[in-house]
């Protein structure tokens, strides 16, 4: 795979990982790197990043609607009230990744999120770096797997009772939710007009 932006089917240059599947093209163009705000929406992203561990993100994208149905749209108060019976229900759901440790982590993370005094949105966005402090990456080799901010965010989440939130997962969350902009410098979507407020995307 090229390490630099590659023209997509429409001729627009994209980050090279984005052209490997149509699902990735849509995700890259309309979601990845755009700010996500709101407790439930960030909770969903944290959960999906945790489920992705050891799997491809494409697998998670293709199962996302099933995950949303299984976890009540990732409503924090609803998931926080799940019981052992819900765990067994989820383990029987062929539409999602049926991993007991990850399912139980989602429920624990909902309970932890429900206890945050200022909410999950405030905690996560507290660790967004100054965008002017980060030069645009030219190739994939310039994109880190972690950052000082992702290490700090992971520690803050763990202190609050979250599971499956190491620095690498936290950095992937920051990339996906627009806390950092890791579209490559010559990617046609790096300069898309994006507000640091809610992008309105699903």
UniProtKB/TrEMBL annotation:
GO BP terms, alphabetized: base-excision repair
Alphabetical list of InterPro entries matching this protein: Adenine_glyco, DNA-3mA_glycosylase, DNA_glycosylase, Tag
Entry binding sites for Zn(2+): 15, 28, 183, 187
SUPFAM superfamilies xrefs: DNA-glycosylase
Keyword Oxidoreductase among UniProt keywords: no
Molecular function terms, GO-annotated: DNA-3-methyladenine glycosylase activity; metal ion binding
Keyword Metal-binding found: yes
Protein name (Swiss-Prot/TrEMBL): 3-methyladenine DNA glycosylase
């Amino acid at each position: 795979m090229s390490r630099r932006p590659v023209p997509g089917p429409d001729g627009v240059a994209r980050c090279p990982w984005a052209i490997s599947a149509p699902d990735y093209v849509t995700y890259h163009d309309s979601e990845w790197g755009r700010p996500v705000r709101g407790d439930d929406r960030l909770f969903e992203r944290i959960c999906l990043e945790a489920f992705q561990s050891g799997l491809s993100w494409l697998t998670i994208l293709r199962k996302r609607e099933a995950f949303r149905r299984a976890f009540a749209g990732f409503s924090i108060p609803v998931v926080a009230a799940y019981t052992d019976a819900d765990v067994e229900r989820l383990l029987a759901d062929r539409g999602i990744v049926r991993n007991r440790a990850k399912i139980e982590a989602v429920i624990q993370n909902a309970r932890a999120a429900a206890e945050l005094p200022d909410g999950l949105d405030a905690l996560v966005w507290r660790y967004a770096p100054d965008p002017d402090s980060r030069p645009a990456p030219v190739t994939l080799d310039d994109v880190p797997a972690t950052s000082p901010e992702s290490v700090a965010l992971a520690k803050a989440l763990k202190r609050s009772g979250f599971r499956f939130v190491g620095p690498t997962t936290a950095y992937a969350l920051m990339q996906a939710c627009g806390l950092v902009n890791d579209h490559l410098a010559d990617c046609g979507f790096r300069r898309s007009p994006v507000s640091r407020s809610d992008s309105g995307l699903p």
